[in-house]
Design a protein that fits this description.
This protein has helices spanning about 15-25, 30-45, 50-75, 75-85, 110-120, 125-135, 150-160, 165-175, 190-195, 205-215, 215-220, 225-230, 235-245, 295-300, 310-350, 355-360, 370-375, 380-390, 415-430, 440-450, 455-465, 470-475; strands at about 1-5, 45-50, 105, 265, 270-275, 280-285, 290-295, 390-395, 400, 410, 410-415. The protein is of the alpha+beta class.
Length: about 475
């Protein structure tokens, strides 16, 4: 496996503010990073785009494009039809073009939206740092996937700053859980639903619904409605109305912030993986990101021999220039460090999922959680989470989200939940629709194949695949 390393070296000697900036830049997708850089250039006169370096890279890209065009011209229409039939096709790929152009219904990272909402609060640097760290620990559904005590320990290791569990809980409840969409920052589905129901206008149905969620959630989740009705001492109609109010809530807070009429837009992959002579090669897709340098004209524009300026004005101007130049150098350094963090993290992921990137088959996905990659690259889990959120990798078989590559192990440490889900989906797709496979039968088949898995786990994965139970799949 070839590793295209980056040549720059960046020492991590940063203030808390600089570390926050790095975490924020790591979180951004390639498209949003470009916008952030242009904004920084506009605000800091000491920064400028290095057009000479960009021209050099454009020449390299032009040579590569010419090579691609030659390859495209090589295939005539009949040859391409044959090529297309025998190639793994991506749903985003155009039939008129041998090279696909990935598109998807895609929104900006919800973490980026939360960081923007964070700016509306007047917080100290310490509080802002803790809040940003918590945001980085949220999963793609808006849930906080780590314990607050773990955040305290990771925070100490990352920033060498002592914080308390009470501080984390306070910021989580008074800031993060006040964000839109409602329910974000919840630790579980019960807390998510309670956050939403608390904002509903009070009436009898809402009051009963709150009692169900706060006091009888376990009974409700098991659909033991007779016990629930008896415990609440209410009529059947009252219970039905309260449950209907609960069913109106969103189990996944992030989904509530997305509209269904989003149009498919072009996405720019953050990484590109190719296969060269049977080996995987990784590159950052940063060709469209502006290259920066310190504006030397700004740095040297002030003449300290100007007779028309007072000593105080000269000192003030010198300070202004020094501060902007220092910020420019810091921003460029942080961008370089971002590249190293992204590259090393993605390389560790590629190395772990080598078989998958060679085949494109979900069955080849190995169990992999954020902590596995964090340990490999010597980063904290929240940083790896930021890298994987809203990032895409272009592969020989299509463009996929990094989140797709993560899954937990099932029984045998070498078996991932993605592999098991893929087999379940395949079995159900090929089942006799007049006699569909029950969860018990699926469990027996998988155990015979060597997958030690329980029936309740089969049911959970089937539900995650949005596949109904056997009796609802039966066809006459």
């Amino acid at each position: 496996m070839q590793k295209h390393t980056l040549s720059q070296q960046q020492q991590l000697k940063q203030t808390a503010a600089q570390t926050v900036q790095l975490m924020r830049l790591v979180e951004l997708s390639t498209t949003n990073l470009e916008q952030e850089i242009l904004k920084e250039v506009e605000e800091n006169p000491a920064l400028e785009i290095d057009h000479e370096l960009e021209l050099q890279e454009e020449e390299i890209l032009e040579n590569e494009d010419n090579t691609l065009q030659e390859l495209t011209d090589y295939y005539d229409e009949d040859e391409y039809d044959s090529y297309e039939e025998n190639t793994i096709l991506n749903s985003n790929r155009s039939k008129d073009d041998i090279f696909f152009s990935p598109t998807t219904s895609y929104n900006n990272s919800f973490q980026e939206n939360l960081l923007q909402q964070l700016q509306e609060f007047e917080l100290s640097e310490r509080e802002n740092l803790i809040a940003a760290y918590i945001i980085g620990c949220l999963d793609e559904n808006g849930y906080l996937f780590v314990d607050t005590q773990n955040i305290v320990m990771d925070f100490m290791l990352t920033y060498n700053m002592q914080i308390s569990n009470n501080e984390v809980e306070h910021i989580l409840k008074t800031i993060i859980q006040q964000f839109d969409p409602v329910g974000v920052g919840a630790r579980n589905i019960r807390e998510c639903l309670i956050l939403q129901i608390n904002l509903k206008e009070e009436n009898t149905d809402i009051e009963i619904a709150k009692k169900i969620l706060n006091e009888h959630f376990e009974i409700f989740s098991k659909k033991q409605y007779d016990k629930l009705q008896s415990a609440l001492h209410i009529s059947n109609d009252a219970l039905k109305n309260a449950i209907n109010e609960i069913l109106k809530l969103q189990p996944y807070p992030v989904f509530s912030s997305e509209t269904m009429d989003n149009k498919a837009i072009h996405i720019t992959p953050d990484f590109i993986i190719t296969i060269e002579e049977g080996e995987l090669v990784l590159n950052l897709n940063n060709n469209h990101i502006p290259k920066l340098k310190v504006n030397q004209e700004f740095k040297n524009q002030f003449s300290f021999h100007n007779p028309h300026l007072s000593k105080e004005k000269k000192i003030e101007a010198e300070q202004f220039i020094k501060e902007n130049v220092a910020q420019a150098k810091s921003f460029i350094g942080t961008l370089n460090l971002r590249e190293l963090v992204l590259f090393d993290t993605m390389y560790a992921i590629m190395d772990k999922q080598c078989a998958y990137f060679l085949s494109g088959d979900d069955k080849d996905l190995k169990p992999m959680i954020l902590k596995d990659i964090a340990t490999t690259v010597n980063l904290d889990v929240s940083t790896v989470s930021r890298v994987s959120n809203s990032k895409y990798v272009q592969t020989p078989f299509g463009t996929i989200s990094l989140k797709h590559l993560f899954s937990e192990s099932i029984g045998n440490e070498d078996v991932s939940s993605k592999e098991v889900k893929s087999i379940i989906a395949e079995l159900i797709e090929n089942e006799n629709k007049r006699k569909p496979l029950t969860d018990d039968v699926l469990c027996k088949i998988l155990n015979e194949k060597g997958y030690g898995i329980a029936r309740r786990t089969i049911a959970k994965y089937r539900e995650q695949l949005n596949i109904p139970v056997a009796r609802l799949r039966k066809e006459i």
